[in-house]
Each structure stands twice: as structure tokens, then as C-alpha cells.
Amino acid sequence: MQCILFDKPFLLLTYDSVNQWLHVQWRGHLTLALVQEGSEKVLELVRAHRYQRLLNDNTQVTILDLTEEEQRGYQILHLLFEAGLHYLAWVYAPVPQGRSYADNSVAGARWPLILTFEEYAPAAEWLRQMP
Q1: How far apart, in Å, are the Cα atoms of 52 and each of 94, 96, 128?
Q2: Are 27 and 7 in contact (CB under 8 A)?
Q3: How far apart (Å, rounded) are the C-alpha atoms in residues 20 and 100?
Q4: Can you give the pTM of this predicted structure?
Q5: How many domains does the chain have?
Q6: Residues 113, 51: Cα–Cα separation, whole Å
Q7: pLDDT beyond 70 at 111
Q8: Which domain of life is it from (predicted)?
């Protein structure tokens, strides 16, 4: 069962009580301002509810309108882990910029339990296996 926590055209946040994870679904044309707004909301929810598992689903992203400098300059993963997150499955966006952003974010994180995936199903399966 999924409980909607936040719903805007660029982002849907739900809690999946069956799998016990926060499902982050990015959508459409994303700018730095939207990524920052959405990421801050995700961080707020992780802090408030102590979510330990997160499925970062970018399959519905159509454009990621961030420069390489903006991508490198805005990193929030360390704050998510400080807030209690333990496992993150990151599904690549079907756009080149999304893959670059994911790879840069993961490379900059000092946490070993982030994996990137080409498709949703393997990401969900991996996350299900995490304690």
C-alpha cells in the first residue's frame, strides 16, 4: 500500500508500507530549483520519519536542465545518510544528463550502500533484500 506524502508535477513522494521504503518519483523537466525543492522535501521526510530505505525513481524524467557545475555543486546524499537513511536504489533517468547527475552524486557520496540501476524492477528487488 502506498501513502502519498507529497505530489507536485515534478515529484511524487509515497511511502510504500509493504516494502517499507520511501519511493521518490521524479517527473518531467527538472531544473536546479526543482531538484533543490524536491530534495529538501525528501530530506525533511527522511528526518521526520527515519526512513532507512529509499527508491529514487527517475524513469519519468524527460529533461534534466542542470549544468555540470550545478550538478557537482548540489549534493544532498550525505545529509540523507546523516538523517538515518541506510540504503538507496537509484534508477537512472532515460536522458544523458540524468545518468551523469546520478553518477556524479553517487561518486561524491561516502556511503557504500547506494546502487544505480538501468531499470526499476532490479532496483526494487535489490532494495527489498536490504534489512
Answers
A1: 26, 29, 12
A2: no
A3: 28
A4: 0.94
A5: 1
A6: 14
A7: no
A8: Bacteria
Q: Which domain does 111 fall in, by range?
A: 2-87+94-129
List CB contacts of 16: < 8 A, sequence separation 6 or more. Answer: 1, 2, 22, 23, 55
pLDDT digits (tens, 9 = 90+) for 15-26: 999 999 999 999
pLDDT on residue 107: 81
Q: Tell me the CATH number at 102.
A: 3.30.750.24
pLDDT score for 112 = 63
Q: Give the pLDDT confidence of 34-58 residue by residue, as tens digits.
A: 999 999 999 999 999 999 999 999 9
Q: What is the DSSP string of 2-63?
A: EEEEEEETTEEEEEETTTTEEEEEEEEEEEHHHHHHHHHHHHHHHHHH---EEEEEEEEEEE
The answer to whether 77 touches 102, Cβ cutoff 8 Å, is no
